[in-house]
Amino acid sequence: MAKEILYLKIANIIEEQIFSETLKIGDKLPSIRALQKLHDVSLNTIKQSFLELESKSLIESRPKSGFYVSKTSNRKLLIPSMNKLKLSEQKTTSEDLITKVFDSLSDKDITRFSIGVPDPSLLPIAKLNKGLAKVVRNLAESGTSYEPVQGSANLRRNVAKWAIVLEGKLTEDDFVTTSGAMNAIFNCLMAVTKRGDTIAIESPVYFGIIQVAQNMGLNIIELPTHPTTGVDLEALKKVIHKVDVCCFMSNFSNPLGSLMPDQNKKELVELLTYHNVPLIEDDLYGNLFFGTVRPKPCKYYDEAGIVMWCGSVSKTLAPGYRVGWVAPGKFKDKIIRQKMAHTVCMPSLYQEVIADFLEHGRYDHHLRNLRSTLYTNSLHFQRTIEDHFPENTKISQPQGGSFLWLELDKSIDTAVLYDKAIQQKIGFAPGRIFTQHDQYNNCMRLNFGLEWKEKVELDLKRLGQLVKNSL
Amino acid sequence: MAKEILYLKIANIIEEQIFSETLKIGDKLPSIRALQKLHDVSLNTIKQSFLELESKSLIESRPKSGFYVSKTSNRKLLIPSMNKLKLSEQKTTSEDLITKVFDSLSDKDITRFSIGVPDPSLLPIAKLNKGLAKVVRNLAESGTSYEPVQGSANLRRNVAKWAIVLEGKLTEDDFVTTSGAMNAIFNCLMAVTKRGDTIAIESPVYFGIIQVAQNMGLNIIELPTHPTTGVDLEALKKVIHKVDVCCFMSNFSNPLGSLMPDQNKKELVELLTYHNVPLIEDDLYGNLFFGTVRPKPCKYYDEAGIVMWCGSVSKTLAPGYRVGWVAPGKFKDKIIRQKMAHTVCMPSLYQEVIADFLEHGRYDHHLRNLRSTLYTNSLHFQRTIEDHFPENTKISQPQGGSFLWLELDKSIDTAVLYDKAIQQKIGFAPGRIFTQHDQYNNCMRLNFGLEWKEKVELDLKRLGQLVKNSL
Question: HTH gntR-type domain spans which residues (chains A, B) (predicted)?
Fold first, then answer.
């Protein structure tokens, strides 16, 4: 039996013991040596099994003590299955469905499980306004003049300082500011692809990535993506010879909430470096971790300058500010030239507001609160879904970010369900929009970045009832 | 002799009489009938000659009286020659030169004849700041939320109202907001071209247009452009079969300051409609007219929806705000989808500030002052150049905008002159950057959108001396 299958087999055994509550929350697991002898395999295989379980948040290690069943492992519902790579070439667009979801956003009475940004109630709007007033007073020529094409030096310096997870590898000169992370991704694609090239992306994937790739005439390969560990590297290896660029969300992907283990990130960067394929790393959720440390980006492992690391404050501070950035590695000069040709430069104002917010520790403080709120919300949502959705519902287990991914009974079409829900003023994002293929029709994405209050809880229960009624 | 050459021949005779002061300022010209008999040609030919002279501001008509030598015709220097279509395929880029010019902008001690935007002293910064403070107070969710992809409805409504020159043909729904006019042009090009397509542009032309076209992998055809009447339609007709899109500045082009006569605009739109070639009309200087009325854009004549009319406030109010728009005709839906894919949406704040500025008559008031200042400046500049530059200098005769185009002695290389001038803290834009070909090396663009004061006058004289020394 192949080694990689062995470790998964052992992990599955332990996983079942946890779900059947043979192993209860807080229970200590047998030691690695004990399990090695029991299964008659190498120490390494057991370590890999534990890594797998850890990546699913089922177990956690305690220093100098061993491994324990995690507090978050008490889950009634299974995680969604990993999709097979669809060979169907049918590329029906889901534009209409996306437009429908976006159109609903203007109705403030709708409970917006559908939206991709945190509710304004979770944002530090008063503090941002204070910063805005300060910046307006101090801005050179009141912001009426052009700033340097590369973007506000002040913002770039603060973003570089804030990227402590990279251990000082990047300086302000390595960054270019952009109009949100989406604009960073667009600029990266413009820099490294031409019409007819092939892009490899996760599946399910944020629909904006599909839209921009289609818009630019790229061929899209959707890769199977694990709900907890992210994109399947084995699947990528099989198609790498026809891939011109990859675009992945390594940390708390949208919509799955998956987190690539460090080992996978390292391996991915090595693979892409070997094949000279650039990686656009969309890391805009990286600061919304539920664990103890900010996960590393793939950029950390990048020595050849092939990783273009994109970020923004759109998911944490102020979506409407349109402030993002990219550390484009060896493509920096090209990105700057392009930015000048596309738009000359950006407005300075909001860049300076964000720089100020980062510089004075306000971002750090705000993120601690936001993470705590999001984590608590994720537990509220999971409990409510467990209690009020059908028993065969599968649910993702995000370790950060603000999304849950639900896989419902095969008979349910969430595009149809959407119309019923919206009539009851409940919005969600149907699974079909997260792929170019005809799949995920029984899935939905829920945003838990809302204020958890009676109305929201009630609407989540009503959504569960709607699903039950559709069976 | 072909009819079109006949009318030019007659126009030239009259032009020479004006320059030799045989006909003095204010003199009445012979009647059309008298000239018809004298030259033994049709009435129409004489009318065309007068149109030509009028377009050069050499003569002006007075109602019910006839034609007179114009007050602005007292010029010692000739207007620059119209370039021939260069057949050389040598496309040396002028990137380094452009970078040099841009780098100099950070040095505030340099007299910036080089820059493409009005000096901050000409902008209503205090009033804009007042508007900003008001908007900040009233913005929904303090601007932290996404606005509709199409852009601020408030701004679009006010831009539509302001476009009185279109006689109500456009409504707010016809506009999409963009990050400045450059971003509008980029979006239009993305919507209607693919790599390898051919774009026809003016020559000389704003270098940003060359950069974005090269960046997108387009073939560029530079068309001969008349210093006063704009792009040569006969030259366009000869290549129209291989053109996929046109991008022209119909009103007060950068750098020539040319203004297409209404008749040419109409003919252009008819030609492009017949061949189904979209026109990107960059009309960001249209409000800076020195005459009595705002010239019409080509969009006025557009019945098939092929004209994509681009504008902004970057040359009149606040370059750094990055607020522009496009009325994209039949390409509107595509432009909106693209904008969403490229950047989701724009920040609302500055759009609302501009909308407010337009709505309350402040723009109208400011433009009246700005036009008056620019026109006076243009006369100061022309006089100073006439007195302090070599006699064989040729100079454009802009009827709006903020640029003069100078053609110097053939022996002068303005790229070399640039280095000498910048050492003396004088900046200008060398002719070479306004073309993809190896031409205009003896030309320069001067921005007269500065505060006319002793230092500026002195530096302009010193620049003239530098030119003389280089002979």
Answer: 4-72
